[in-house]
Amino acid sequence: MATREPGDHAAFAEKFNRDEARVNWHDETLWTVRKRRDLRAGQLPEWEALRSKASMIKDHTLSNLHDYWVQFEKNAIANGARVHWAADATEHNIIVHDILKTNGVAKMVKSKSMLTEECHLNEYLQDNGIDVVDSDLGERILQLADERPTHIVMPSIHIKKEEIGELFHQHLGTPKGMSDPQFLTETARHHLRDVFLTRSAALTGVNFAIAETGEFVVCTNEGNADMGAHLADVHIASVGIEKIIPQRKHLGVFLRLLARSATGQFITTYSSHFSVPRKGKEIHIVIVDNGRSRQLAREDFRNALKCIKCGACMNTCPVYRRSGGYSYNYTISGPIGSILAPNLDMADHKDLPFASTLCGSCTNVCPVKIDIHQQLYKWRQVIVAEGHAENKKKLAMKAMSGILSSPSLFKMAAKGFSWVSGILPVAVKNKFNAWYHQREMPEVKKETFTAWYKRNHKE
Amino acid sequence: MSSRDHMLGLMAKNQPALLPLEETKLEVISYKDPVRQFAETLTAIGGKAIMVKDFSEIKMRIREEFDTTKRIVTTIPEFSDLAEMFSASVLPHSFENTELTLLHTDFAVAENGAVWITEDIMGQRILPFICQHLAVIVYADNILPTMQEAYERIASRRYGFGSFIAGPSKTADIEQALVLGAHGPRTMTVFTLNV
Fold first, then answer.
1. Which of the residue ranges A79-88, A421-430, B52-61 would you say has the lowest mean pLDDT?
2. What domains can you pick out in chain A, each with its CATH number?
3. What CA–CA distance (Å, rounded) separates A101 from A408?
4. Chain B interface, best mutation among A35, A267, A294, A306, by max B CB count within 10 A
5. ipTM of predicted complex
6. Quick one: closest CA in B to A57, which residue?
7. What are the boundaries of each domain within chain B?
8. Structural class in CATH, domain B34-193
């Protein structure tokens, strides 16, 4: 599914909202994860100090990115790894394919990497005759379903177990109607063990690259990155330029925040530090820009590069929880996706910064203190200023800005609104008012606030 | 221009003015009894913590807890009567039928139930991952409170590969239902030696 479907966030959300029971289930499942994050955060008295420290380290790192990558490269090469540089997705895919060709590899196992999703690596390799199997259970499910992840940490959060049972029945030969998670996971364990044992190349993502040592850290719960990498002759690690941290000891900050923020775990089951290749084997590190340095130049938006991809902003977002990951129509969904996507293509992703209530919950849970909701707000201004806003949104905003900048117009409009919507609810609750779709309008008071205030505060 | 020079050039050009890296040390949580905290955390994440006084008690408990007719692999010579000593020269794939891997750890972490294992005490990197069950031995006075102390302990030590392992391999990718035993071990037991 490399091609993007036509439509904007509101249209996709409307589609998702047709199945109310599923929306409620999606909403509640993610809220449970958010609550687990709160529980873990509350157990550490230093939680806020940890967030500040992580934010400070990332701010510093972004201001010294050039030197840190030079340092990383030098140390990684000294460790025996091979380092490649990819300016964009196409170059990344060509490099990976070349490494596989050189080693005569036709089948590769892959663990979770949102970067390779961003680069559409699987499609590229498959078009070039390479067989790729995703080994993270959620991603394997999506691969069988021919779908994309809807969440960066829990990729198949939108799929019901009965649907997974049916997929496994079709592809892995489980009995029809079997949907017990324990049974399905056991089936996947056997199926993927055969894959691990027969692949001579493994690709993983990278959670943290450490400039000081040239090592990189990969975090999983399933152990799939380790099963792949330690059995393969060739380990390829793809890393975006935002994933670097200066020193090894900084892991003592980030690994405390990552899993607690992501899933409410204390730490992922495995936090594996790769430094030197096994004797006679190869580690290839592919460093990828793909628009990130452009974001680095944008003062208002560079903070988004501090992201450690925990997904906490998605789990807490009232829009994401009720509109689903596909409504964002981008590799990374939710609030963080909405501030990353316009950097790549503003016109194409112009709807995303508007897919938010600006409630600020994302900013409050972000472990590296990215000002997510403020960036969403700023993207809106940029998108309108550069002429990418839709006409109905432009008209509404122009009208509102006129009304809001004139006190007398505002008074008139406020009276008018309460009169119109009170007497004629249909004037507000109709299909021409885009805001009303999938929303309940509040009951409108007969009196304006100004009138109420005057009545109750007589001097 | 090579992509390397192009990318590094863009970074140098687009990065903001240098911001400081403050070195202040965080004041972190302390536990009255880190050994007990470790046991509680490990239990909470699906692992098993067993207090023992010596190696012979560990052997007794292994015979009770695991199927010793199946393949047990270790890197600790003292256990060669119970387990097969690992070989560095065989293919990692050959450990596929390992029922239990038994390893030492340098230290464990109370706040998250993790043990730190480097390649030199792992034997082969695949060993703690490919087995059906994993057992690890830690000395009680090597249980540290948090990851901050953990990285102070690791400091600038060199290793080819090292991993924090916290509990059995797990997944919740099917409707957030927690299942232990995804691709790696189905159980993790930590023997804490109180000497």
1. A421-430
2. 44-290 (3.40.50.10420), 301-385 (1.10.1060.10), 404-456 (no CATH)
3. 71
4. A267
5. 0.98
6. B21
7. 34-193
8. alpha beta
